[in-house]
Amino acid sequence: MGMNPASTPSRIRWLLILWMFLAAAIVYLDRVNMSVMGQAIAKEFHLSHIQLGWVFSALIAGYALFQAPAGWAADRFGPRLVLAAGVLWWSVFTSMITLLSASMAGLLVIMIAVRFCLGSGEAVVFPSSNCVVAAWIPSSERGKANGFIFAGVGFGAGITPPLVTYLLIHSGWRASFWASSVLGLAAGWGWYAIARNKPAEHPWVNRGELELIQDGLPKPPNRQPGAKLSWSAIVCNPEVLKVTLSYFAFGYSAYIFFSWFFIYVSSARGLDLKQSSYYSMLPFLAMAIASPLGGWISDRITRGAGKWYGRCVFSAGAMCLSAGFMASGTQVASAGWASLVLAGGAGALYLSQSCFWSTSADIGKSSAGSVSGFMNMGNQTAGAITASLTPVIAKHLGWTASFLVAAGLSVVGAISWLALKPEKE
User: Fold this and answer.
1) Dist. CA 65–CA 311, nearest whole Å
2) Strand, coil or helix: what is 124?
3) Each residue's pLDDT tens digit in the chain (425 positions)?
4) Are 143 and 299 in contact (CB under 8 A)?
């Protein structure tokens, strides 16, 4: 098996988690890249905010529709190959928007198609990461591992506004998409070089780490190790449906920040380009901090009180706290303080992020990719709705109403968590 016989466990599993952090950061760098560049692109291509919302939704629709197939592919062919192929695909389509011009016939349709294809490639990231977690991470470390992976979301989204604003000012909006494409290709090559699907296949894993991982994996009482779940078993499982409903609510709230927060602080709050780039960092930095913190707290509670308290009650509390921040943030007069309060809502929401993926990995086991892909399809479907619905609500009812809808859905997500039974086979 190519393992070193050392008794002190190696830590190769955390190297793979670090690479998943980087993949998550690059994916969300591209998401927020489009949000920040949205006004410049809309101006050049003569798009309204509602048409721009369709372009935003196209990426998320592709991402949502391919979650379940991506999860199946990761289970079937392994996350090493599937993620590397997905990174190559999305890096190509990231750069394709730079080739478009305002004089092209059917420009809006082409933009929507390009972004849809980009989203379909990005769909492999988190189902693949959950396959890695399910195979490589003991159950007691899964909150921490997923928290660190999803800190990449906040990190990538957080550094994007000032970075791409600098590129916009000095090199134009197309430069930021080329930079994102090159980063993706480099990360994909690195992943294929260092990753393996199973710990026993990796030449750098020693016996101590292999035993630590194997001893800490959940033992399925009614399923042979390695047995795959059918789609009917996944779709009809009430616990999968509950966590998917909650993740739908999570996704609606999260995508207000990914798709529209930069435009909100610049247009609704009247900030200039530079100010907007800095204020719009706040929600994503809050996510980057809250995601690993939430994973660590969840693991601690789970070890002491069980999975229902550590995953479900904790997540329900976090989502209710997020709803409170979002409901009150739009009522604050100062743009700076409003951004800070709304960032608190984003951070509170991301305290629960790792719990979704830890729970889906525990439920899915050797079908973790498929289960998490189905769950994330709910999340991304909500994101596609948010991207298109938010500007409509804002136009007719105001930005306050947009955030209140998200707050209400966060409460629905909390209730769904409390109804979930994570120990149920």
Assistant:
1) 27
2) coil
3) 444 455 688 999 999 999 999 999 998 887 778 878 888 898 999 998 889 888 888 888 888 889 889 989 998 999 999 999 999 999 999 999 999 998 898 999 999 999 999 999 999 998 899 899 989 999 889 889 989 998 998 898 888 878 888 888 888 899 989 998 999 999 999 999 999 999 999 999 999 999 999 998 876 555 555 567 788 888 889 999 999 999 999 999 998 888 778 777 777 777 766 777 777 888 888 999 999 999 999 999 999 999 999 999 999 999 999 999 999 887 877 877 888 898 899 999 999 999 998 898 888 877 888 898 899 899 988 988 888 888 889 888 888 898 899 999 999 999 999 999 887 65
4) yes
- Residue 365, by phi and psi: left (phi above 0), alpha (psi -120 to 50) or beta? left
Q: Which domains does the chain possess?
A: 12-216+232-419 (1.20.1250.20)
Distance, in Å, from the CA atom of 407 to the CA atom of 319, rounded to the nearest integer, reads: 9
Dihedral class, residue 253 (left if φ above 0, else alpha if ψ from -120 to 50, else beta): alpha
Please give the structure tokens belonging to residue 12: 């190769």
Q: How far apart are CA 288 and CA 343, in angstroms?
A: 11
Find out whether 217 and 347 touch, Cβ atoms under 8 Å. no
Closest CA to 19 of 192, 142, 178: 192
Annotate 215-280 with DSSP letters as a single string: HHS---TTS-TTPPPPHHHHHT-HHHHHHHHHHHHHHHHHHIIIIIHHHIIIIIS---HHHHHHHT
Which phi and psi (to 5°) does residue 206 adopt?
A: -95, 175
Largest distance between two CA atoms of the chain: 66
The span from the CA of 282 to the CA of 155, in Å, is 11
CA separation for the pair 320, 348 (Å, rounded): 8
